[in-house]
Amino acid sequence: MPNVPLEMIWWVLGLPLIGFLLQAFLGKKIIDTLGHRYGKKIVGTMAVLPIAAAFLLGIGITANLAQFPPGERNVVLTLFSWIEIMSIKIPFEVVVDPLSMTMVLIITGIGSLIHLYATGYMGDEKDYSRFFTYLNLFIACMLILVLGNNLALLFIGWEGVGVCSYLLIGFWFKDLNNSRAANKAFIVNRIGDVGLTLGMFILVLMMAGNAERLGLTDGRWLSYDVLLPNMVEVFKDQPFLTATVALLLFVGACGKSAQFPLYLWLPDAMAGPTPVSALIHAATMVTAGVFLLNRMSVLFELSPFASAIIAIIGAFTALFAALIAFGQTDIKKVLAYSTVSQLGFMFIACGAGAYWAGMFHVTTHAFFKALLFLGAGAVIYAMAHEQDMRKYGNLLKYLPITGACMLVAWVAISGLAVPFLFGFAGFYSKETILGGALAGQHAIAGGINLGMIAGWVGLLVAMLTAFYMTRMTWMTFFGKQERWRLADGPSHDHGDSHHADHEAHDENAHHAHEDHGPDVHGFFYTEAEMARRAELEEHDHHHDIEPTHEPKEVGPAMWIPLAVLGVLSVIGGWFLYSGDRFKKWLYPNGLTVLPPEVVPKYPEWETLLMFLSIGAALAGVLLGWHFYKKGLPEREGWDLAKWHPFRRAAANQFHYDQKMVDGSLKGGAQLGEMLNRTDKGFIDGMVNGIAWLTGLFGNLLKRFQTGNVRWYAAMMLLGGIGVLGYLWWVALKLGGA
Amino acid sequence: MNLDQFKVAPPSVDWITLLPVILVASTGLVALLIEMFRPKQTNVAIIWTSLIGLGVAAGSLILQMGQPSGDTFAGMALRDPASLVLQLVLVGVCFFTFFFSESYLRERRIPFGEFYPLALWSTAGGMIMVSTENLLMLFIGLEVLSISLYVMAGMARQESKSEESAIKYFLLGAFASAFLLYGIALVYGATGSLHLDQIARAYALNDGLTEKLLIFGVGFMLVGLGFKAALVPFHQWAPDVYQGAPTNVTGFMAAAAKVAAIGALYRVLSGAVDLSGTWMPLLIIIAILTMTIPNLIACQQKNVKRILGYSSIANAGYILVGLLAHLQSPDKIGIETTVFFLVSYALVTIGMFALLTLNARDGKEGTELSDFYGLWNRHPLAAGLMVLFVASLIGIPITGGFFAKLGIFNDAVNAGLTLLAIVLAINSAISCYYYLGIVRAAFVAEETRPQPLGSTMPPGLRFTGIACAVGVLGISFFLTPIQAYLSGKDPNAWTNPPATASTGPSENLSSSTTNPSPDPDPDQDPALTNPGEAPPDQPPADQPPVAEPDEQSPQESSGEAAGESEGTGPAANPAPSR
Predict the structure, then answer these.
(1) What is the DSSP letter of B195?
(2) Is residue B413 a part of any domain in this protein?
(3) B91 assigned to some structural domain
(4) Of B436, B511, B513, B553, which to mutate for an interface test with A (greatest number of A Cβ within 10 Å)?
(5) Is position B371 within any domain?
(6) A461 min Cα distance to partner chain B (Å)
(7) Nearest-CA distance from A141 to chain B in Å?
(8) In whole angstroms, what separates CA B506 from the centre of its chain?
(9) Number of domains comprising chain B
């Protein structure tokens, strides 16, 4: 293995940035000059290469880092001093340690596969280079987020990722649903950011307040290597404050990692827009919250209460999203909710104190969820942009490679395994999470072991996961019906229950090419704007899939990433788990404050747990197989009226989303009205008064500016006399005579 | 006859100190020669010669930055950090003015190549002003600066406005020069010397007549320099002249004349700092007036050049606040913030006026606010840059203007001039109104003129705009080195950032690792590049670590030590073993 010096990390950070600049400034020109065919090839290569190179460098650096003695795998590199205000110093510095390098490998590795795939998927796109501009910038921001050695840099990456995600979700901005989803993602993420920033402020205050006592003279209070080791001292005997800061940071993590109160944006963000951007969110961006929890693990370990809350919210999110997934017919929505659900698992792990298990699941999840999204994208691509599973069926026959890879991913996410021998990726990470949660004694709030409850819920959700993933797989790839050839399709007249549902909840598109519902809230766009957008979109509108459509296997640019991820999904988990490789890699980071007995390795559970979790997975798969082996069940067809009430509710996210949006909009409107009244009466009056006064003085003073040079000279003379007269007075006073 | 009294030892001459001024002035001569023989169509040769000359002058300035301070030519020329930086700013202003001038002069149909030599000489005059403590030199520098400016202001001969502004400027300038000269004469009478450091000596004599002479001498000089710096109530020429002069000249005037005048004011007031009890209250009043009055008037203006004229007066007020804060407590508060403000102000001014020249076409130029309608559609880049410059003028964070204003505000508070700080803050708020008016105009969609202006942006102009924008954004990175250099805390700060500052921005990819060994070599085997021996209490790799909460484990402590020098690291820091 070539010995890549750690300083090369700047190139890992810089290459995507260079790629971004190249795309932004040259991409369009290249395509315009060389024509679409060759231009796009060059632009695509230019987009993939920096990320791939960064990945290779990342491997080299990781290998180098792995040769360090375990206690010293923590290297801080400083580029320049960035902010110095009063005594606070925030340098532009990165940290190379196992956690950051793990994230770097996931981001650049999965990221380069996504880029490669996107060169194929976005092949027909007019704004080819714009897409890759955003993608490269996204990767760059994500790398800043994970590599930065202080919370300020993390925040920069955090917000940068937020902006890129807004741009990517709204990439086809002419489609109203996409723009709306982009807005929603942005707004919901802001709520989380408020928590993150507040948490950061309190941290700075606490560090500044204790700096003298702890002898922290160099002012880098937000840097991890200063902040984390002192956390115990700073937050000693402050349980309330600790929990406050921890929960505030968790609110931030909730926003970015789509946990329960704030998960709203993720499914919307993934349903309409480009599958590729959906995927980059699923595999990379949403892990930011888990990363934050891992990075700040000391703080959360100090607060069992906050940890318990995190675990139980994670468990609830996992369950809630899994239930919703049963009501979805859009293949990507199923995957979106599955992502939310899997993120819940990661939060269970972090809440229970088994942080490494959370990161482990981040890693394996990146493998199989990327595979699922890429596979779904390939299916959608092959099916002429049809996303509704009710139009699929028997696709394995037409898409053998994609289908095979998707089956691998299905097995992996379900967590199937052969006892004692071998398991697919999802099995190991899920088992470690459940084991950590069930045996843990950390996440206890008010005497209730919420961590353990979360573990049992997690086991149930594991079963549900296998169930709905089997549903998706069977509806898509198996069964004799090739349903796009059948006559019964979505009814486009807006008179039936479909419409009623649609009206109630327009974001929840049943059909990928949903017509614009009225913007019931009147919040995002005015009517005129909607009409204009609708008109614009007419030109780009995809047509419905033809009954005579023959699905064709996708090209190599798209299936090569699938195959790579397929292999990883099969052996990745086993490789990282055997011999506790992953755990030893992430630990020790020298920071854990939990005594080892709090998060035991569940020895007495081990065998039982393995059977429990394999059993849950098997049960789920069998249930799914039982219900969907005959193809699309009657009661999940096009007529929503025939659906089971539960499933109908699930399709609508149990009305949670709608109530949240309605409630916040109504509340916001009332608040705004109130503020408006105050504003008009009091503040406007004051402001206008000041403006009036300013204007009055200005007008008066303007009179003196006559343009007459004699007048100016006279004024100067007067001024001079004033100056000298004053000095005369001073001199008189001084001289005394 | 005793001839011995004429046998004065020749003064020691350090030509290097004078080199920049000589270079700029002689570049002006060469440029004039080229102008005489030039092919009639183009000024390209003049411009390139001038740019090269300015570049060499800038280089000679930068090379001097490590040199010790001191004066030469019998105290007539001075080299100290402030003079070097201000000279560099003047050279830079001239440099960037030349970049966008040619396209503008061509559009305005002002076919005079003399502009370039005149601007060069004017720059040389300004450079003399900021690098001397000799009053006669100061006066000569001021006149060289001013006379060139008078001519340049009247360069657009076909336009009565330009002529009028030149005459106005000249008449009032002569008036002000008289004040200055009279003040110099009084000071000479009191001290018997033209050197500013003699003021303090003479004042210390505590002689009643000398005292009065000095007080009035400084007062007269204040009037003269106040005119150049456009302080209220000696400001009234500024808006008229700014509006009438060709736009590139206005930009040059606003930046260079202001820097030079403030530099000179700094020298004079520093020399007269012992008298500060007499003039400080006066200047505080002047500062308040200078900040407030132009801001109020500017709100009523519709002409962009005029608005910027008033803005430049107000900025002179802000700078004066910084200067007064320094003079109020010279030991505690340095001149750095003022110089930093000047740098950022010069960048923004040149950039802003460069953008204004976009509206020149076919001998005409529109400078009303309404002429800028639709700029966003015509020149998105220019409109974007305009937003940035205006943001810096207002003082919105991350632009240079923010840090500059913040620094001055801070200084004023620290010096106990709280009243000035408050007035400064209020005026910053007022100024938002007219500054944002400019931005608003750029983003109004419809064009008012029947024939739309062209949409090409001359490359020189584009370069100037982008360079100034990069400067305005990037200057915050140089805040620390500039301050360190000017305050003399570390004379090498400019060229060699100290190791403790965790590498300056000039070295892009350098890094300081946690490695406590003195010379980290990235190519070495990691076993060697890192502290080889782990301390014995290091937890083994395969166990979940149980870190003692009270003690820092070694890697964090070494990480913490990254920013510090070795000796101050915590005790847990493992000794480097190689």
Answers:
(1) B
(2) yes
(3) yes
(4) B511
(5) yes
(6) 29
(7) 19
(8) 20
(9) 1
The Cα B570–Cα B90 span in angstroms is 47
CA distances from B14 to A76, A186, A480, B60, B73 (A): 47, 63, 97, 13, 7
How far apart, in whole angstroms, are the C-alpha atoms of residue B251 and residue B271? 30
* CB-based contact A292:A286 (threshold 8 Å): no
Where do the domains of chain A lie? 303-488+552-651, 652-705, 713-737
A77 and B CB contact within 8 Å: yes
What domain range is B538 assigned to? 23-561
CB–CB contact B223 A80 (8 Å): no
Q: Are A72 and B508 inside 8 Å of each other by CB? A: no
Whether B299 sits inside 8 A of A77 (CB atoms) is no
Cα of B411 to nearest chain A Cα, Å: 13
Contact B236 A220 (CB under 8 A): no
Top residue of A217, A236, A301, A709 to mutate, by most chain B CBs within 10 Å, is: A709
Please say if the pLDDT value at position B335 is more than 70: yes
Classify burial at A581, counting beta carbons within 10 Å of its beta carbon; exposed 0-12, middle 13-18, buried 19 or more.
exposed
b vs e for A468-502, b when ≥16 Cβ sit within 10 Å of the residue's Cβ? bbbbbbbbbbbbeebbbeeeebbeeeeeeebeebb
Helix, strand, coil content of chain B in percent (nearest 5): 70, 0, 30
CA–CA distance, B31 with B25 (Å, rounded to integer)? 10
Which of B208, B222, B539 lies nearest to residue A735, judging by beta carbons? B208
Q: CA-CA distance, B400 to B391, in Å (whole number)?
A: 9
d(CA A91, CA B514): 14
Question: pLDDT digit string (tens) for B508-533?
Answer: 333 333 334 334 444 444 433 344 34
Measured between beta carbons, the chain B residues lying within 8 angstroms of A727 are 215-216, 219, 278-279, 282
* ipTM computed for the complex: 0.73
What's the Cα-to-Cα distance from A605 to each of A53, A601, B235, rounded to whole Å?
43, 9, 86
Burial of B436 (0-12, 13-18, 19+ CB in 10 A): middle
Q: According to the per-residue pLDDT averaged within each range, which of A76-85, A616-625, B221-230 is highest?
A: B221-230
Q: Please compute, for residue A604, the number of CA atoms within 13 A of its CA located in the half-sphere on the CB side.
A: 3
| Alpha helix ranges (H) inside A67-169 | 98-121, 128-147, 151-169
Mean pLDDT value across chain A = 79
Residues 563-592 of A with CB under 8 A from B: 580, 584, 587-592
Q: Who contacts A426 (Cβ-Cβ below 8 Å, separation ≥6)?
A: A364, A365, A368, A412, A413, A414, A415, A573
Q: Specify whether the CB–CB gap between B539 and A590 falls below 8 A.
A: yes
Cβ distance of A79 and B553 shorter than 8 Å:
no
With CA atoms as reference, the chain A residue closest to B223 would be: A720
With CB atoms and an 8 Å threshold, state whether A7 touches B544.
no
Report the pLDDT value the prediction gives residue B169, as an integer from 0 to 100.
92
Token pair for B461: 């102009």
Phi, psi of B109 (to 5 degrees): 60, 45
SS3 A597: coil
B27 located within any domain: yes
Nearest residue to B243 (alpha-carbon basis) of B234, B255, B256, B254: B254
Q: Does A156 touch chain B (CB under 8 A)?
A: no
* Angstrom distance (rounded) from CA A383 to CA B387: 47
Going by pLDDT thresholds of 50, 70 and 90, the confidence category of residue A549 is confident
Give the whole-angstrom CA distance, residue A427 versus residue B445: 60
At A601, is the pLDDT very low, low, confident or very high (cuts 50, 70, 90)? Answer: low
Single out the residue of B114, B125, B108 nearest to residue B50, CA to CA. B114
Q: If contacts are CB pairs under 8 Å, which of residues 168-227 in chain A contact chain B?
A: 217-218, 220, 223, 225-226
Whole-model pTM: value is: 0.59
